Amino acid sequence: MSVTDEPLLSVDGLQTSFYTEEGEVKAVNDVSYQIDRGERFAVVGESGAGKSVTSLSLMRLIDDPGRVKGGDVTFRSTSAVATLARKFPEGVATENSPGYIHVTELRSESGAVGSDPGATVRDNPTDVATSLHDGSLHIEAGHVDVLDASEDAMRELRGNEIAMIFQDPHTALNPVYTVGEQIAEAIRKHLEMDDGAAKERAIEMLERVGIPDAEERYSDYPHEFSGGMQQRAVIAIALSCDPALIVADEPTTALDVTIEAQILDLLKELSNEEDVAVQLITHDLGVVAELCDSVMVMYAGKPVERSSVEELYYEPKHPYTVGLMSSIPRIGDDRERLDTVPGTMPDLVQLPSGCSFHPRCPYAEDACLEHEPPLVDVETGEPVEDPDPAVHSAACLEYTGELQDGVDFDVQIREDAATDGGESV
Amino acid sequence: MRRVYDSEALRRDDDDPFSPVEDDESASRNHVNWTNLSHALVPQAIRSRAIAVDVETDKDRYEPGEEIHFGVTFANRFPLPITIVTETPKSWEWSIDGNPKGSEVPADHPEDRSTFHFSRSERKRFRRSWSGRVRVDEKEWRSAERGEHTLGVGIDAVNGAEKLRAETTFQIE
């Protein structure tokens, strides 16, 4: 399998807990997914479902008392492998020594290099280059184990290869530095440009995210920007170093709908034209329909449904997803009141036995109290070991044949609303 | 209009007790971090005696399938801050018949030590409940058998853990 066939990011069995006096808060509990190059992947769920903690874990931004307890995060980018191998040769894995930088295929000017490419890279770190640059050793395939990487290596990855757009631009921007300086800082750090070149690129970035008169606005402070412009400045910081993956944590929650549409268009354009993968965290299913290719629904720190966006909207399989869908207000809807998912998210210190959703599920039976459903293929009922985006999977006993009465809901797709993914459940 | 700098709000005077002092170095010299001092001076053996542990269920008898609600209290008997060093980051744990959180699946807490801190004479109260179902596997539970069950609470302290435990019993009928 060549490197481009493999997903850019694989998250496998991720577990993150916060140890508080109340007990262990299991914020992320065995989450697996993968994102391909240029794919737009959504993580949706209520507040407290573990969406943001999942993203912060893969960026290694979990602070005490939080701990990433288990799992693997594999990031397959040859440029990331090349940069890290050059700067941290001691982290390159060889046949005899472990490491977090794995070089699986290496070429030199004369052809493919020996049986242990890791050792070759470790011995010649200065020669390591990607195929884009001149150099005697080209890394053709490799990956980085993000959770094992050193703190210095993570600082190289963050912002450069994996960028994050934070939820609230007011707190993400530093009020005492100009907006331009905050963008230029990331460029100077990662792209090793001098002050003048970094400023030029920062202005280019501001123009790109649609800030008018970017040259003038470069030296404005964040308070001189409107909310939408601040969010665009945060996006400009994220884009400034041409990342391979952008993790966007509710990027449009603080914005009005017209600016939201512009920001979504910008993210779409980036992923289409530059093959940037986007992991979008949101609780707005409308945004998911607008932007994303595939989606994972989370509940109480676990994935409950995973599928392509079309299948999720037209054929939701998990009762929680159905509940979320039916709580979306729609124009022309003649219902007196919106349906809601009754109750609240369970306390993550003591999760209910069996299926975590059973206390709120209208279809819950005795079996749901004693068996926790694994994520299964909804067609075959077979557990899904490898998170394959093409397989529609849901964690409900309905699909393992253990429910007696089954789940029973209708999805009606209205012709007039079908264009914006509208249906009522 | 009176400006803020005309208000003398920032007037500093060492002799006037109602205005900020010119030099606040003396104030910082008086500051003692009692938590750290107590942690340094109180012997380990006394620390585990200082904390009283108590656990109480809301009833003595429960129907099968009924949720068991209970309260846990940790009280610092000393008028000094006490810090207990724990084996794992988990400050305390409850168990049913010796199974942590009613689960036969072993817990997997990281093996790095942490601390459980009490201010002087502090009482910490926690409310918890148990569903009455024993976790027998990662994804399987079964109803608890009828009869007497023991609910235990303890701090997994590095020193004197045996003193930092409490137990109670209840019946499922």
TrEMBL record, chain A:
GO cellular component terms, alphabetically, are: plasma membrane
Enumerate the Gene Ontology biological process terms.
peptide transport
Query: What membrane topology was assigned to this protein in its record?
Result: Peripheral membrane protein
**Which keywords are on file for this protein?**
ATP-binding, Cell inner membrane, Cell membrane, Membrane, Nucleotide-binding, Translocase, Transport
The record, for Pfam families, names:
ABC_tran, oligo_HPY
Which cell locations does it reside in?
A: Cell membrane
Q: Does the keyword Protease apply?
A: no
The GO molecular function terms of this record are: ATP binding; ATP hydrolysis activity
Cite the ABC transporter domain residue spans from the record. 9-325
Q: Which InterPro entries match?
A: AAA+_ATPase, ABC_Ni/Peptide_Import, ABC_transporter-like_ATP-bd, ABC_transporter-like_CS, Oligopep_ABC_C, P-loop_NTPase
- Which protein are we looking at? Peptide/nickel transport system ATP-binding protein
UniProtKB/TrEMBL annotation, chain B:
- Name of this protein: DUF7974 domain-containing protein
* InterPro entries in the cross-refs: DUF7974
> In the record, what lineage is assigned to the organism producing the protein?
Archaea, Methanobacteriati, Methanobacteriota, Stenosarchaea group, Halobacteria
UniProt feature, compositional bias: Basic and acidic residues: 1-14
Annotated region (Disordered) at 1-28
Composition skew (Acidic residues), residue ranges: 15-25
**Which Pfam families does the entry link to?**
DUF7974
Where in the numbering of this chain does the DUF7974 domain appear?
Answer: 39-173
